[in-house]
Amino acid sequence: MITLGGRIKQLRTEAHLTGEEFGELFGVAKSTVSLYENNKSTPDDEIKIKMCKYFNISLDYLMGLSNNRYNKKEPQKGIKIPILGSVVAGIPVEAITDIIGYEEITPQMAKNGNYFALKVRGESMLPELKNGDIVIIREQPDVESGEIAIVLVNGDEATVKQVKKLDYGIMLYGFNSAVYAPHYYDSKDIEELPVTIIGKVVESRRCW
């Protein structure tokens, strides 16, 4: 049976939350979240109740005493998010804003921000992202160095790339360097083109 710490980590990762973000939700430090997840500390009853309400789960499920996740008998329905056209995994192309379909995310995930989906075209992000994959994006104006983001170049061109932050700019990488050479943008480029991060890729989905 899963431990309380294991369940907390499961809930956090399912919601795509960092330790810091999870801690902010429940008024504890990032280090405290780590202690919870490693079963070195136990949240008090008030925090447990907050977790149950936030994730809409039973206390027994949180404690690892039951596999019955929800307080309600029926599981929660997913939240639909739009697929807003396609993203080229290669040379940037103009972003398509018409809705071409829908994907679903969990209600817990939806609480953490605004999400949309885009379809990948091209081979520059192989093998992690293939042509036709759907990427789930959380809208945010910045990402950590090394994370995969949706970036607008020249204001109207969207591309999915790994972002590496440097002292005087950023580098956009494709995992398949044979198709896409790294592109460097200095501070002037970022401001004048402009180069704008519009979201972080938190999940990819593949149809077989």
Automatic annotation (TrEMBL):
Domain of life: Bacteria
Xref: InterPro entries: Cro/C1-type_HTH (IPR001387), Lambda_DNA-bd_dom_sf (IPR010982), LexA-like (IPR039418), LexA/Signal_pep-like_sf (IPR036286), LexA_repressor (IPR050077), Peptidase_S24_S26A/B/C (IPR015927)
GO molecular-function term, one example from the UniProt record: DNA binding
Annotated ranges, domain HTH cro/C1-type: 8-62
SUPFAM superfamilies associated with the record: lambda repressor-like DNA-binding domains, LexA/Signal peptidase
The protein's name in its UniProt record: LexA family transcriptional regulator
